[in-house]
Amino acid sequence: MAEGQKRARFAIVSVFLSEWKEVLRFALRAEKLGFDAYWANDHPNRSMDTWTFLSALAMATERIRLISLVSCIYYRSPLLIARQAADVDRISEGRLVLGIGIGDDVPEFNQMCLPFPPVAQRQEAMEEALSVVQGLWTEETFSFEGKYFRLDQARLSPKPVQQPHVPILIGGGGERVTLRQVARFADVSNFAPHEWSGSAFDISDVQRKYSALRAHCEAVGRAYDSVLRSHYTPLLTLAENEDDLERKRRDARIPDRQLRSVPVFATPETAIAHYQALADAGVQYFLATINGRDDETVRLFAEAVVPAVKLGPR
User: How high is the pLDDT of residue 312?
Assistant: First the structure.
């Protein structure tokens, strides 16, 4: 968290790679190039299980942070989330960030034979789940009586390596509820130009959401800068020149094409301007999805874009 005040940091993830060995090569390259983190999405119907995947990466990597982006509170009990996160934190020797969210993918809920509650109910359940996870991490025995979850003298041992607890990231940018939950529970706020991730489609959205987050932090007596402010790019594609970029744009596979999102197609110069504008709006940490077979984008991102972006005003 302290490092978030010093320099902009960048994390990446690959898409469209189906084999573990391919994904591992991509993650190891990301670590070698100096990216800060790699993450796992929580979509059991179309990708490896989040916690199996992060455990394997914890064994295979040495420095890079590992993020669940984001683990759905309905796919596992809060105790199981706390257990799996503690295990990955221990295996990685303290490199985990627990990203957590309420879930949005209705067909996936149906395929998992799970009901899909209304937003307000999912948000209430999120608060209870966070209370349970943190209680299990910090208390020797923990009891909880809520509307959705109940525990009686529950124990979790061994606990995570990081103290006082694994950093928690809450996904989403809802200004009335989600960002209030960030101020109360989380170490990291993450939203995106994506309808499932806060709908921050332009700079004015980012600025407005940070104003709301600041107000929520003030309401609970918390320093605004104690929350790391991250931003997610649904797909980043780079090319050396406009002609190559247009070719890539025509051929691009877009994740979640059926949903409203804003991928970024850019030369290094325009990518720098894009990320610097976000940094000037207050973003400190950037996460980008990249086609796993697009070596040029990875190289240009690491060599040209990342070193050029500087932290902006707070």
Answer: 81
List, as one string, the DSSP characters of 111-126.
HTT-----HHHHHHHH
CA 199 from centre of chain: 15
38 and 32 Cβ atoms separated by less than 8 Å: no
User: What pLDDT was estimated at residue 257?
Assistant: 85
Token match 């104003």: residue? 211
CA distance 59 to 88: 9
Q: Which residues contact 161 (CB under 8 A, 6 or more apart)?
A: 89, 90, 93, 94
Which segments of 148-262 does DSSP mark as H helices, in order?
Answer: 178-185, 203-219, 242-251
Q: Whole-angstrom Cα distance, residue 197 to residue 274?
A: 19
Identify the helix (H) or strand (E) that includes residue 26: helix 20-33
Residues 6 or more apart in contact with residue 251 via CB below 8 angstroms: none
Sequence-distant (6+) residues with CB within 8 A of 18 are: none
Computed on alpha carbons and rounded to an integer, the radius of gyration of the chain in Å comes to: 19
Residue 194 sits at φ, ψ, to 5 deg, of -150, 135
Rounded to the nearest 10°, the torsion over CA 45, 125, 54, 69 is 80
Token pair listed for 209: 């959401």
pLDDT of residue 18: 86
